[in-house]
């Protein structure tokens, strides 16, 4: 029962509460004004009310652009319309800053790394990725990075024998009479086969099984992994509306993936317990025990099985579509310019028909330019974002010309478009939308080129990816004298977390004599 005497107290409390809120608001406002003045920040004058960037789209716009394959290009055009490479936007109540300025990206990823986290996006990916490296922030991320990093040392990454074995299986599916086929499909199979072997010492062998029935567990896993990946992307696109999404296909696929990987984790942890026992009882380890296996290295460092599984699934996600997309985008461009294939053949001729060693591979300059140029025009991770966890500042984007510093209030999502940055005419010249490997002859590396990210979270698999893509390209060059495009149209984007060619890479290859 309400006591009439308590009313004044309620009013006093409410009054105190309101004053407190006002007080904190005003102090916050004042301290922000001081911060803004101290950093010379000017407001960002370019704004766009619908959301422009991958994964953050207003549902409907996203669906339309996605179908047309024009998300990246539409975003790039916005920078031109604003005549500024930084603009702001808002989705419902979430403030966004979108940028394609090298200096801003360097600030987010490196100089002020500690001012940002991944933010909300972690929630959508958690059902598949758990707290693995790709989905963790702060201490947890640092710990994962520390755990995984040694596994990407050169010796492990340079297992060219494994690439050769899987390449030979791929070769079996390539018609040698010049008839049309889709290289992209084969590249996607090749990379899941090599990545699973690298991680689990057990390949999905999807190239070997291609013409067989698909009821074996490796094939079921490979398919489930694709479905699971699509499902978590949908979760991030739907955001809070995800709970209204119907169907259990995604959830089932995630379960299948976890169970499949759990088996290899169990084996690895068992192996480690056996090895420990052998050492304890003074028995010698066998040769096989000494061999390097990624999953076993993790089992040596932790016996937390879920942890090992999470990390492996994260690396598989990070490493599978990316390398395949680099290859298929690059071949799509090369097929359009026969002179490039001829130059590659000239360069590879110095190997005298032998398969390359790791050192030889690294010394093929034109091949490297071709890969750099593909990752420039078609960065396979074309857009990315971070979430400001405290008030901070970007060096560019403020004022009418976007050349003053810009205040970033805590809680802002800062998105960056590597795709748009890589095609800036002021950075790459008037021919910035042309595939031209020769431009790399005179370029120096800097923040305007960022296919693998930069700063503390730079891609761990860069060497692995470039070695695999380079090796496969050299071997195709050695096997085939001619390469012809069988797709008259332009390259069309197919965008998920990564971007590949919507129409595949349709080619005809003519065998070398
Ligand atoms: C052409 C191929 C590849 C490209 C363009 C690429 C690009 C990237 C990018 C842009 C990131 C940063 C993501 C972010 O912080 O938001 C990243 C992170 C990562 N990549 Fe790659 N990647 C490629 C291949 C690979 C491969 C083959 C592997 C492993 C075998 C791999 C493992 C990783 C890992 C573990 C991270 C997380 C690093 C961290 O957060 O500390 N990547 N990659
Ligand atoms: C890896 O797999 C191969 C083929 O299945 C097997 O012969 C080998 O013993 C395995 N090696 C290790 C270290 O697990
Ligand atoms: C070409 O790409 C490689 C790998 O991403 C990079 O290390 C190198 O710096 C690039 N070249 C230039 C000139 O940026
Ligand atoms: C390429 O893809 C686009 C969109 O998916 C489609 O409209 C077009 O017909 C395709 N072109 C070819 C040559 O298949």
Automatic annotation (TrEMBL):
Q: Which PANTHER family match?
A: P450, PUTATIVE (EUROFUNG)-RELATED
Q: Which cofactor does it need?
A: heme
Binding residues annotated for heme, in chain numbering = 459
Q: Which UniProt keywords apply?
A: Heme, Iron, Membrane, Metal-binding, Monooxygenase, Oxidoreductase, Transmembrane, Transmembrane helix
- Originating species: Massariosphaeria phaeospora
The entry sums up its family as follows: Belongs to the cytochrome P450 family.
Short name of any one Pfam family annotated for the protein: p450
Q: Name one GO molecular function term.
A: iron ion binding
List the InterPro entries.
Cyt_P450, Cyt_P450_CS, Cyt_P450_E_CYP52_ascomycetes, Cyt_P450_E_CYP52_fungi, Cyt_P450_E_grp-II, Cyt_P450_sf
Query: Which protein is depicted?
Result: N-alkane-inducible cytochrome P450
Membrane-crossing residue ranges in chain numbering? 6-23
């Amino acid at each position: 029962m309400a006591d009439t005497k308590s009313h004044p107290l309620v009013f006093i409390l409410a009054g105190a509460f309101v004053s407190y809120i006002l007080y904190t608001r005003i102090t916050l406002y004042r301290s922000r004004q001081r911060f803004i003045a101290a950093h010379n920040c000017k407001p960002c004058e370019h704004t766009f009310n619908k959301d422009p960037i991958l994964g953050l789209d207003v549902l409907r716009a996203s669906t339309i652009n996605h179908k047309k394959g024009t998300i990246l290009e539409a975003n790039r055009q916005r920078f031109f319309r604003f005549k500024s490479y930084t603009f702001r936007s808002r989705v419902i109540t979430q403030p966004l800053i979108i940028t394609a300025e090298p200096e801003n990206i360097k600030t987010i990823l490196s100089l002020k790394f500690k001012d940002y986290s991944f933010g909300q996006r972690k929630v959508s990916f958690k059902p598949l990725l758990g707290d693995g490296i790709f989905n963790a922030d702060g201490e947890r991320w640092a710990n994962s990075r520390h755990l995984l990093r040694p596994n990407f040392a050169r010796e492990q990454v340079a297992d060219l024998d494994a690439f050769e074995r899987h390449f030979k299986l791929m070769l079996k599916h390539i018609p040698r009479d010049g008839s049309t086929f889709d290289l992209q499909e084969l590249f996607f199979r090749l990379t899941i086969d090599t990545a699973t072997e690298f991680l689990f010492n057990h390949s999905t062998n999807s190239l070997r099984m291609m013409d067989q029935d698909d009821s074996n567990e490796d094939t079921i896993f490979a398919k489930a992994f694709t479905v699971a990946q699509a499902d978590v992307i949908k979760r991030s696109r739907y955001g809070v509306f995800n709970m209204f999404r119907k169907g259990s296909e995604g959830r089932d696929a995630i379960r299948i993936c976890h169970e499949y990987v759990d088996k290899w984790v169990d084996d690895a942890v068992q192996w480690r317990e056996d090895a420990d026992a052998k050492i304890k009882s003074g028995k010698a380890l066998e040769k096989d025990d000494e061999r390097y296996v990624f999953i076993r290295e993790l089992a040596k460092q932790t016996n937390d099985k879920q942890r090992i599984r999470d990390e492996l699934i994260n690396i598989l996600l990070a490493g599978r579509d990316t390398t395949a997309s680099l290859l298929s985008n690059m071949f799509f461009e090369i097929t359009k310019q026969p002179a490039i294939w001829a130059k590659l053949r000239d360069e590879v001729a110095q190997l005298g028909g032998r398969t390359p060693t790791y050192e030889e591979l690294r010394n093929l300059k034109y091949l490297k330019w071709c890969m750099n140029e593909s990752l420039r025009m078609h960065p396979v991770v074309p857009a990315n974002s971070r979430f400001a966890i405290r008030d901070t500042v970007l060096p560019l984007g403020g004022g009418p010309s976007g050349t003053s510093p810009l205040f970033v209030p805590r809680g802002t999502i800062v998105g960056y478009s590597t795709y748009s940055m890589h095609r800036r005419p002021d950075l790459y010249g008037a021919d910035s939308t042309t595939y031209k490997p020769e431009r790399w002859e005179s370029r120096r590396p800097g923040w305007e080129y960022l296919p693998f990210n930069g700063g503390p979270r730079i891609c761990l698999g860069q060497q692995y990816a470039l070695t695999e893509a380079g090796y496969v390209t050299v071997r195709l060059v050695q096997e085939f004298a001619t390469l012809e495009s069988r797709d008259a149209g332009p390259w069309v984007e197919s965008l998920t977390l990564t971007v590949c060619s919507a129409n595949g890479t349709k080619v005809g290859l003519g065998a070398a004599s």
